[in-house]
Amino acid sequence: MNEEHTALLKNIRLVAFDVDGVLTDGRLYYGPEGESQKVFHVRDGVALKVLPDVGIDVAVVSAKDSPALRARLNDLGVKHAYVGCHDKLERLQALAGELGLAPNEIAFVGDDLVDLEVMAWCGCSLVPADAYSLVLERANVVLTVKGGQGVARCVADLVLNAQGLYQQAYTLAADAHFERRRDPSDR
After folding, report:
1. 159 to each of 40, 55, 78, 169, how far by Cα in Å?
2. Looking at 7-21, 22-36, 62-76, 159-173, which range is the least confident one?
3. Contacts of residue 35, Cβ cutoff 8 Å, sequence gap at least 6
4. Which residues pair with 109 in a beta bridge?
5. What angle do CA 103, 75, 149 make, to 5 degrees?
6. Tens of pLDDT, residues 134-144
7. How far is CA 169 from CA 56, 72, 153, 183, in A?
8. What is the rounded CA–CA span in Å between residue 173 and residue 151?
9. 173 vs 46, 53, 72, 168, CA distance in Å?
10. Residues with Cβ < 8 Å from 37, sequence gap 6 or more?
C-alpha cells in the first residue's frame, strides 16, 4: 500500500460493498425459479464482522435481491444491508447523514459502470482486479484479488493497516466467540 492509499483510508468510518462482482465472482446461477445460489468467500465473512468490531461500519448495497444474499448478510450480522437498491448513491448519502459521516470518511467497493457515481462521491473507491476497464481506470485503489476471491478481506486489511488497527482486529477475530452468528441489531 502506498502513502496515497494510506492517506485515503486513514479516516474511513464506513466501508460499503457492492455484491455481484465484488463479494461474488459476478456469475449468476439461475434455475427455473430465478436466481438460485450465490457463492461467497469465507474470508469476506471475517472482514464484514471484524470491521464493525473495531468501530468501522460496514454496508452492503446491491441492486439485486435474493434469499441467498439475505441469508448471508443476516448470518454475518450486517447492520446496513440494502438489497434491491437501485440508487446506491442516494442510499449511501442517506446513510452518511444518519451516521454523521462526510464523504471522505466513506470507502466504496464496486466493479461496474453502475458504481461509478458512488465511486466519484466517496472518499476512497476500491475495485477488484477484474473490474470493468473504465471502472479500473477511475478507482483510487485497484485490489490484487478478483471479485469473489476475498475482496472484502483485502479491503479490510488495507483499512485496518492504514488505521493501525490490524493487530487489534485480528486478535479479536482469533477469539473462539468471533465465529458466532451475528445479529444485525447488536451492531
Report:
1. 21, 12, 18, 11
2. 22-36
3. 28, 29, 64, 66, 68
4. 17, 126
5. 65
6. 999 999 999 99
7. 11, 21, 12, 19
8. 18
9. 7, 9, 18, 9
10. 29, 68
Quickly list DSSP for 41-93.
-HHHHHHHHHHHHTT-EEEEEES---HHHHHHHHHHT-SEEEES-S-HHHHHH
Q: Which residues pair with 81 in a beta bridge?
A: 60
CB atoms < 10 A from the CB of 16, how many? 23
Q: Which amino acid is at 78?
A: V
Total residue count of the chain as it appears in this document: 187
Strand partners, 35: 30
- The three cell numbers locating residue 163: 488505521
3-class secondary structure, 143: coil
> End-to-end distance of the chain based on CA atoms, in angstroms?
29
pLDDT for 37-58, tens place per residue?
A: 888 999 999 999 999 999 999 9
**Per the structure block, which three cell numbers stand in for 5?**
492509499
Could you give the C-alpha distances from 71 to 101, 133, 151, 166, in angstroms and in order? Answer: 28, 31, 19, 28
